[in-house]
Amino acid sequence: MATVFLASCFTGPRPTLETVDTLAPVNDPAAESVLQVLTSTPTMPFTIEYEILTKFGGAITSATVSFDPILGTSIDIADTRYLYTAEGTTTTCSKSTFECTTGIDETRVSDRQLTSTFHKQSAIERIRQDVRVAVGPAVGRTDSLVDTAITCAEFPVVDSAGAPQTKSYCAFDEANVLASMETADLSVTAVSMSPTADPALFQPPA
């Protein structure tokens, strides 16, 4: 089985609608609950604003993720806008210079330990990795963030110095994207959510 979502691809003339595979369930009920939310395809439009702290260096970044079933997905991370259309084309733009290139150029935000799919595919990959390295089962919970229901999992891990740490992931139940994340390198928190998507966000900045 597979769930179609607009995921990242390399820079270059290969714009496609990539497939997020519904992989075999992980051996962790709490983690699987969050993965089931993230691997589902959203059906409603939304716009979510995030505040992101890159812990190595202390950079704080504002990001906006907008989705529309007809228009596709738009991701603004600082000065960069990533566009994934419903037809499968992808574009990377600068909001300050208005320059755009075909494809997804992840190097634009790599200094912030981010990718254009931090809200979806990247979070899925991180969770699956943490299931493998956790020193115990994840603890699941349900909650709300910005007045919206979320499903969460917290993983007990050990850092490089041997100290116990906790990594946490929460996903919006209806939007099927990341709500918050706390890891060694990143702290991601949604600060607002709207059930609408401005069509202007799905165009190159001008």
Q: How would you summarize the topology of this molecule?
A:
Layout: E1 2-4, E2 19-21, H1 29-38, E3 46-54, E4 59-68, E5 72-77, E6 80-85, E7 90-94, E8 100-102, H2 121-133, E9 139-145, E10 148-158, E11 164-172, E12 178-182, E13 186-194
Provide a descriptive summary of the structure in words.
The chain contains 2 helices and 13 strands, in the order ββαββββββαβββββ. The strands form 2 sheets. Strands 8-7-6-5-4-3-13-12-11-10-9 form an 11-stranded antiparallel β-sheet, with helices on one face. The protein has a two-stranded antiparallel ribbon with strand order 1-2. It is globular and about 50 Å long. The chain has a single domain, classed as outer membrane lipoprotein receptor (LolB), chain A (Clam). It is mostly beta strands. Helices cover 11% and strands 42% of the residues. It starts with a strand and ends in a 12-residue tail after the last strand.
Could you name the key traits of this structure?
single chain, 206 residues, mainly beta, outer membrane lipoprotein receptor (LolB), chain A, two-stranded antiparallel sheet, 13 strands, globular, disordered N terminus
Could you give a short description of this structure?
The chain is mostly beta strands. The chain has two helices and 13 strands. It has a single domain (2-195), classed as outer membrane lipoprotein receptor (LolB), chain A (Clam).
